[in-house]
């Protein structure tokens, strides 16, 4: 292949290397020079242009890319027409992408001119999804290099394994303290996981967490022709002799592997009974967030056996996310269950909905709203009270005269609630394990509720956020572990942290409350009048 500058007349048959713009002339990269192009170049006054010419024994970039792509495409994959040296490969059907890693490496090792990229091996894909691309770097290559890459493909480096399992049985074991809504949510999340594969839950059973009951339930599902059985234990599998593996072996099944180097997902168990795979699900499988359970489940649904060697090889890339519910090294002995919690009162707002007066200085029962809230926080088990002021800071601070609180001024209070949250969090003492964030306009929040939130806060049990709840509504105040302070510091505008609660649902402890105190904020004259009427 020849590469270099040439006069327009001598460039005939060559391909432009760069896009050329001169006056009204635009000649795009990759244009083959013919008589019309020569005339246009001469009229534009172009004396020289860089082109590339194929020589005997060369093939163009599109021919090479198309040939290699066709060679790597196995079952369930089609190749679209090559253009600009690129040939893209797409899934013809839903399934799991199977990649021959060695073949991919061989193709990329032929020459730097030839590149081949794929999605991650065993990724679930949908019909029409792009799964790989072949890209030629230069405008052409020697035919022998193209042929070497085709040979390296070994008759197909990629294929889509179609989903073959459609009938799934689910067993949930039960222990005191496992709420029915947890089981219901698990079933809903599982059904959503199965749906892209065309699989459904044909039957589900709920039995005590003991070997005999579980064995009977698995046998019952197998008798219903379940092609896969998933067991969600009320208690995590701790050993090969634990309830779930023992139940599988009790009915003549086998435990193929326990544990995997994917986090979350460590405590997954793969077994079989009567030729049907049985999965002991890790606790994280109750969550819709991707975890190691997904990696194994989707392969099994595509009829792909997951060997011990494949499981143990998942460690690189197996750390999917930090699991916030785990105890952290910073936990110190001697603290009361890690309940050293500060209280933050947000009292910096402009009270725009009140139409003028500062609502925090309005009185209820002879006391200002902000003083009522502060006194309740001080009467609680919170270790120190921080009051964030901003709008009319002097008047708010005067209303709290005599109370043992720490004032923090928020110069950015006009930007919204988030700025006050950040000011308060930044002021929390370093030895505090968390903070309960109270609103200065919620006078019906009392010390007992704050104490209940603090009691529900249990990092050693994964309870890192405590929220009052009534009739499936979440109210205020909310207690946050220090683990989330960095995320709270990223808040912006006048929006609170509700989205963070949703993001970390597995870390939330809900505290049932009666009445409407956790939901009543006084931000309008009408609300104030209603509260004053009692």
From TrEMBL:
Gene3D superfamilies assigned: MoaB/Mog-like domain, Spore Coat Polysaccharide Biosynthesis Protein SpsA, Chain A
GO molecular function, one term: nucleotidyltransferase activity
Keyword Transferase annotated: yes
Keyword list, A-Z: Magnesium, Nucleotidyltransferase, Transferase
A Pfam family that the UniProt record links to this protein: NTP_transf_3
Residue ranges of domain MoaB/Mog in the record: 169-302
Database matches in InterPro entries: Bifunc_Mopterin-bd, MoaB/Mog-like_dom_sf, MoaB/Mog_dom, MobA-like_NTP_Trfase, Nucleotide-diphossugar_trans
Name recorded for this polypeptide: Molybdopterin molybdochelatase /molybdenum cofactor cytidylyltransferase
Originating species: Bradyrhizobium erythrophlei
Phylogenetic placement of the source organism: Bacteria, Pseudomonadati, Pseudomonadota, Alphaproteobacteria, Hyphomicrobiales
